[in-house]
Amino acid sequence: MPTKASKIRNREVKHSKTRNLLKEAMVELLEEKSFDSITTSELVAKAGVSRSSFYTHYQDKYDLIEAYQAELFSTITYIFTKNENEPEATLIEVYRFIDRNPIYAGLFSENGSKEIQQFFLSKLRQLFEQLILPARLDGRGIVASHQHYVSIYYANAIFGLTQAWIRDKKRESPEVLTALILQLIE
User: Fold this and answer.
1) How far is 139 from 172, CA to CA, in rounded Å?
2) Calpha distance 174→99 (Å, rounded)
3) Same structural domain, 161 and 73
4) What dihedral do alpha carbons 158, 164, 167, 173 form, nearest 10°?
5) Which of 26, 45, 52, 85 is most buried, by CB atoms within 10 Å?
6) Structural domain of residue 15, as residue ranges?
7) Could you tell me the keywords of this UniProt record (predicted)?
8) How far apart are CA 163 and CA 50, in angstroms?
């Protein structure tokens, strides 16, 4: 006869499996269409779970993404803080994280979450404004008051490269992509 502990463990395994199926389905759907156009019906059909199973875990698709978003924000903030004065280490670690986690690659893609994309752009602008630009703009005739615009330019360029890298199935390693980015901003 199953014990109470084994029943709880079995339920936890089942819940974890359902959440993983939904996450994998979201990744696949993000390859096909935008986050905003994905419906709960499509998500549960792709995952092979019932709507009631979905609603046992999440209120809606935004609730599903919110948990991943919180983890992503925390991880990206940690990476930027940990590698505060090392842009190369920061970018490599961010790209390794995206490479290892398909859900985040999907959320960064053109079809992904606009909120996550804006957060990442903000972090990239911060990286440029605080670390990269002051050293690189010296003697180039760009006044300090324009550094904000230059950081926006570079952040959007880097983000565009990031999305292209994801769209191209991450052919280059995080190290190669980072080396290219650093070469482009020299």
Assistant:
1) 33
2) 8
3) yes
4) -70
5) 26
6) 4-58
7) DNA-binding
8) 32
**HSE-up of 157 (CA within 13 Å, CB side)?**
14
- The answer to whether residues 98 and 146 belong to one domain is yes
Does the pTM of the predicted model rise above 0.85?
no
- Say whether both 50 and 71 belong to one domain: no
Q: pLDDT, tens digit, for every residue of 20-56?
A: 999 999 999 998 999 999 999 999 999 999 999 999 9
Token pair listed for 134: 């002051």
How many residues appear in the chain? 186
Residues 8 and 72 in one domain: no
d(CA 53, CA 77): 32
Residue 72 in this model has a pLDDT that exceeds 70: yes
CA dist 137 and 157 (Å) reads: 17
Helix axis angle, 40-47 to 4-32, nearest 10°? 120
* Number of DSSP helices (H) and strands (E) in the chain, helices first: 10, 0
pLDDT one-digit tens code per residue, 49-67 = 999 999 999 999 999 988 8
Share of residues in the chain with pLDDT > 70 (%): 91
Task: Please give, one letter per residue, the 3-state secondary structure of 95-123.
Answer: HHHHHHCHHHHHHHCCCCCHHHHHHHHHH
